[in-house]
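Throughout our pipeline, every protein is held as a single compact record rather than as scattered files. Such a record has a labelled line for the sequence and another for the backbone structure tokens. This encoding replaces a full spatial description with a residue-level series of whole-number codes. For reference, a complete record is included directly beneath this paragraph.
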Amino acid sequence: MSPSRPEPQKPTRERILDAAHELMRTLGLSRATTKEIARLAGCSEAALYKHFAGKEDLFVAVLSERLPRLTPLLHRLVLDPGGRTVEQNLTEIARQATLFYAESFPIAASLYAEAKLKSRHDAAMRELGTGPHMPIEGLDSYLRAEQSAGRIAATADTFAAASLLMGACAQRAFAYAPAGAVGAPPPQDVDDFAAALAATLLAGISG
């Protein structure tokens, strides 16, 4: 019987992303250094910088490639809402947003402890053309597309509706964070929460 072949090693970029995700999740963004990320990935810092411009660039890649895929869902629905109802689409958006914020909140929370670090991070995000406002704007674009199609009220404030849905999902992550909800009851099931949130929001913006 021939010996089994060892599994091929992942490409360097994938190993770096895996390491960044793990360290940002366990240590927080402020304490996850490029040196530690490179060490965990089994490469040099120089190799890391061949793939990513810096920690902020890595953070954006982790959010888009390792966390629940909220942004691609919003982009897809703007172009083609598909054959589903608005309520079904909003339920899926709420579900993905809830999962996204639950995973990203522990990563980014450490930034708020250091004002200067938060300021540098925000400036880097602006240079990269991204930031925490993007999901709200993405959902606003989707709702405006539905408004143009006549599936929600022409008088609905789509930006306010998008802010309400994303805000509720983000608040759920904050309220029930493992370290921040001492004595709180367990959160509502994600699917039940998403369905209830979508139905409640739609009741206010339906034609």
